[in-house]
């Protein structure tokens, strides 16, 4: 995993809307996903990839830009890849991933295009959305199927449907699946992204879902609206209180090392290895977010 990279908010942009595509960089998301799947109707499936490819090629964005293609089992998946890859998106997101073989197949296609276009080998990354029990069972194999894999996400709406239920406000039907996606991502050392929350009017429930995603170990959350980006950033960016605590933990640790103390404590509490790792992670994320600068 690229330790200096943040993927807190990954915002979907409809691949058939030229104005939204061109202007999507102004909303401040860490990652943009130009969508060729769910938000594009069947009559527009053939034209949308060309629109997306043109925007990526001619517009300079302040963040990374990926493309969610249609699955390779559909009539449009391979064409999506062949059309958008020469414009060099930063990554491809595969929906409804269920096997490592799917990832390897896309990897081969990307490698061919990189070679033909003179791109640096491996410069286009891959991520996959886990949206079914089969995909969840194979999540680790999917996450490690290619050196290009930079992350896996859970697709809540489709996963809930595959369970023959609906997506509730509490999200309890997805708790196990979310946990297992995080477990697979951590074992594979790739990013873990939580599902979208489609009701943009319900900021209260969305906020609680973002808090839960952070507490469960996700690195960030997919979203569908610019209004959601600010909420995600507020929760996933270390607060000043968290930064100060992490700084004190590391100061106490370094002081104990200098004095060769066997026991490390701060304010009467023991400091152990997990606390030090968490403190380092907080400061690394704060540095990447631009809210903390390490002393030279």
Quick check: average pLDDT? 93
The helix content is 40-55%
Strand segment tally:
10
Number of helices: 12
Largest sheet: 8 strands, parallel, barrel
Order of SSEs, N→C?
EHEHEHEHEHHEHHEHEHHEEH
What best-fitting shape do the alpha-carbon axes yield?
A: globular
Q: What is the first-to-last residue Cα distance?
A: 24 Å
Rg on CA atoms, Å: 20 Å
The secondary-structure class comes to alpha/beta
Unreliable sequence segments: none
Strand content: 5-15%
Strand order of the largest sheet: 1-2-3-4-5-6-7-8
Describe the structure.
With 296 residues, the protein is an alpha/beta fold. Helices cover 46% and strands 15% of the residues. The protein is built from twelve helices and ten strands. The strands form two sheets. The chain has an eight-stranded parallel β-barrel with strand order 1-2-3-4-5-6-7-8. Strand 3, helix 3 (77-84) and strand 4 (91-94) form a beta-alpha-beta unit. The longest helix is centred in the last third of the chain and has 20 residues, at 240-259. It is globular. The chain starts with 8 loop residues before the first strand and ends in a 7-residue tail after the last helix. The model has no long low-confidence stretch (mean pLDDT 93).
List the helices and strands and how they pair.
Layout: E1 9-14, H1 18-23, E2 31-35, H2 48-58, E3 64-68, H3 77-84, E4 91-94, H4 100-117, E5 125-130, H5 133-137, H6 139-143, E6 149-154, H7 156-162, H8 175-188, E7 191-194, H9 203-216, E8 220-223, H10 226-236, H11 240-259, E9 265-266, E10 269-270, H12 273-289
Parallel strand pairs: 1-2, 1-8, 2-3, 3-4, 4-5, 5-6, 6-7, 7-8
Antiparallel strand pairs: 9-10
């Amino acid at each position: 995993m690229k330790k200096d990279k943040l993927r807190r908010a990954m915002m979907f942009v409809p691949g058939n809307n030229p104005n939204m595509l061109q202007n999507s960089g102004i909303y401040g998301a860490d990652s943009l996903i130009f969508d060729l799947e769910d938000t594009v109707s069947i009559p527009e499936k053939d034209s949308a990839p060309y629109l997306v490819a043109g925007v990526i090629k001619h517009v300079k964005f302040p963040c990374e830009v990926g493309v969610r293609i249609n699955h390779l089992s559909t009539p449009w998946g391979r064409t999506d890849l062949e059309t958008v890859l020469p414009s060099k998106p930063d990554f491809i997101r595969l929906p409804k991933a269920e096997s490592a073989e799917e990832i390897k197949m896309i990897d081969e296609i990307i490698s061919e295009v990189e070679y033909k276009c003179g791109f640096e080998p491996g410069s286009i990354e891959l991520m996959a959305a886990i949206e079914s029990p089969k995909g969840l069972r194979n999540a680790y194999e999917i996450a490690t199927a290619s050196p290009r894999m930079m992350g896996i996400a859970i697709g809540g709406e489709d996963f809930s449907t595959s369970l023959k239920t609906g997506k509730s406000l509490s999200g309890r039907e997805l708790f196990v699946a979310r946990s297992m996606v995080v477990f697979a991502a951590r074992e594979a050392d790739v990013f873990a992204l939580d599902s979208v929350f489609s009701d943009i009017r319900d900021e209260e429930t969305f906020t609680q879902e973002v808090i839960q995603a952070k507490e469960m170990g996700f690195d960030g959350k997919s979203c569908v609206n610019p209004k959601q980006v600010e909420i995600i950033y507020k929760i996933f960016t270390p607060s000043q209180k968290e930064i100060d605590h992490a700084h004190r933990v590391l100061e106490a640790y370094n002081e104990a090392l200098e004095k060769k103390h066997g026991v490390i404590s701060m304010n009467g509490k023991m400091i152990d290895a997990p606390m030090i790792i968490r403190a380092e992670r907080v400061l690394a994320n704060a540095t990447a977010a631009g809210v903390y600068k390490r002393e030279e």
